[in-house]
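Same chain as my last thread, 382 residues:
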Amino acid sequence: MELKPQRLLSLDFFRGLTVATMILVNNPGSWSHIYAPLEHAEWNGCTPTDLVFPFFLFIVGVSIAYAMGSKKADPKSHQKTILKALKRGLILFGLGLFLSIFPRNFQDFNFIESIKHVRIPGVLQRIGVVFFICSVIFLKSSEKNIFRTIIIILLAYWALMMFLPVPGVGYANLEKETNLGAWLDRTILGEAHLWKSSITWDPEGILSTLPAIATGLFGVLVGVYLKRKDVEPASKIAWLFSVGCMCVIAGLLWDLEFPINKSLWTSSYVLYTGGLATIVLALSYWIIDVHNYNRFTKPFVVYGVNAITVFFVSGLTPRLLNMIKIKQPNGDEIGSLTYFNQTFFTPHFSPINASLAYAIFVILFFYVILWIMYKKNVIIKV
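reply #2:
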């Protein structure tokens, strides 16, 4: 018998787990001391950390299917729904730009110079773009056409990256600075507006957003299938596990030709991470929504219902706190957050464990805030 609730507790759980992990990997006590699974792959390959962003975009897709399902059946509401999606996408993009512009030290801050060198691509920016485009495609296309769109995107991106000669280089390649995506970012955006750690390329660049859209559409199709009322939960689980496993295998096989790579968001990466996300959601759905084993879910649901809010605030808070300076015995001044880390974590653990302990503290700190919001039913929707 199909479950009546349209809101999946397992989806909130999955979203919260993903965002909590994102905060964990983004807030180490020291970037010089990180356990290998909590670091991104150097280039090709995939660590657990490399699963976080595609999992979130997959969840965005599933959420679109649930939030806009009723509106899809009413063509008269499409324009209004698309405008709302556009507004939300622009807000997300704007929040991402705000984080890029926001200074780490107001004393040296120059707004005009910051605008000249602001990083235009970014995580929130990509989420905004993927959300809007996937929303439009979901409203205007059938499931079969969405599936075809995914296939076309993955094949077209593979062909562009593997066979189109890069201007100024003369041949197609997948190297950091000379691939087609890096050339396109430098040509359109300019080096001043790319990721400061690389300058010549950006992991959330223009061209790689195309396969990121396919990741979102992957989630849309899974969401549409989960919502079906004519399929028993057991059959849903079986199909989702099967599809997930086949996509993981397909991604690994394609990796031999088109390497799994997060920064390039390769087609093999889309299949591999999309398959794993499908398996995780199917397992969560079976345990949490079908069998009602949900006591362990509360901490992650608390994170899940205010996911974008906590991600944004977690990026802003360290900068604000480190603007409060504390004078050291030698006369130097350090940020209050740095002081807190050096006082309560660094002296009591090995460097790598101190770094991890600090990251866990950050998760617990935000959990307390989110728990209060959850209890008061405060949900900030972007």
